[in-house]
Design brief:
Strand 3 and strand 4 form a beta hairpin. The chain has one domain: Sandwich (Immunoglobulin-like), CATH 2.60.40. It contains no helices and eight strands. It is elongated. 0% of the residues lie in helices and 44% in strands. Keywords: Cytoplasm, Disulfide bond, Phosphoprotein.
Length: 86
């Protein structure tokens, strides 16, 4: 299996309470496995508050819905040994 690397990392974002925010990270290969999103070191699952998806096979997205003050912190995307944070 080829080593999947991060081609385009996360960007810091400022958002108002109650708004949605989307983070994108592009990887080098499609169908990357061993992918994880975290917020403040807590692994995120796909649910009504966190939408996790993959666009065009290589662009991994995380949308946090209706953010609150408790959502302030570091968002991290990890694929294999590579990590990007914002």
């Amino acid at each position: 299996e080829p080593d999947v690397t991060i081609v385009s990392g996360l960007k810091d974002t400022v958002v108002f309470e109650g708004d949605d925010v989307t983070f994108r990270c592009q990887v080098s290969h499609e169908n990357a496995r061993d992918v994880e999103w975290k917020l403040q070191d807590v692994a995120l699952q796909n649910n009504e508050m966190n939408e996790i998806s993959v666009e065009k096979g290589k662009i991994h997205t995380l949308t946090l819905r209706k953010v609150t003050e408790q959502d302030i912190g570091t968002v991290a995307f990890r694929v294999g040994p590579h990590t990007s944070t914002a």
